Amino acid sequence: MKRIGRYDVVSTLGEGGMGTVYEVTLPGGTERLALKVLKDAAPEVVERFGREAAILQFLGRHDHVVGFRELGEERGRPYLVMELVRGGTLASLLKEGRADSARVIALPSGQ
């Protein structure tokens, strides 16, 4: 089984220009988490990634924000561990007609 830091990789959830997101778990654990690891360790990319982690940490627990767990590094590449949120992307919901864009834009923070 592939391992990143102290996490066992269960599957690959997605891949983009900046990095790859994996579904992970701690050894012996049952909670599934999301782990994003950078492809590029260029200073400006790492700095932006660090800001993302700091913002998640600062926001804390909120119904509309993915929960921060840990920022780490594996073989010189930073990774960010967050709670795993099941479901599609907002873009896919809009494309499928399952969410009206005007309604989504108008949603108050409590919904």
List keywords for this structure.
111 residues, globular, single chain
Please, could you describe this protein's structure?
By secondary structure, the protein is α+β, with helices and mostly antiparallel strands. It has a 6-stranded antiparallel β-sheet, covered by helices on one side. A hairpin with a 2-residue loop joins β5 (68-74) and β6 (77-83). The chain starts with a strand and ends in a 5-residue tail after the last helix. It has a single domain, classed as 2-Layer Sandwich (Phosphorylase Kinase, domain 1). It has helices spanning 43-59, 90-95, 101-106; strands at residues 3-4, 7-15, 19-25, 33-38, 68-74, 77-83.
Quick structural gist:
The chain is an alpha+beta fold and 111 residues long.
Sheet with the most strands?
6 strands, antiparallel
- The H-and-E topology, N to C, reads as EEEEHEEHH
Report the CATH superfamily: Phosphorylase Kinase, domain 1
Q: Report the structural category.
A: alpha+beta
Tell me which oligomeric state these chains represent: single chain
Show unreliable segments. Answer: none
Coarse morphology: globular
Question: Looking across the biggest beta sheet, what order are the strands in?
Answer: 1-2-3-4-6-5
- Terminal-residue CA separation: 39 Å
Overall strand count: 6
Please name the CATH architecture.
2-Layer Sandwich
Fraction of residues in H or I helices: 25-40%
> What is the CATH topology classification name?
Phosphorylase Kinase, domain 1
Q: How much β-strand is present in the residues?
A: 25-35%
CATH class assignment: Alpha Beta
Please report the number of helical segments: 3
Average pLDDT for all residues:
83
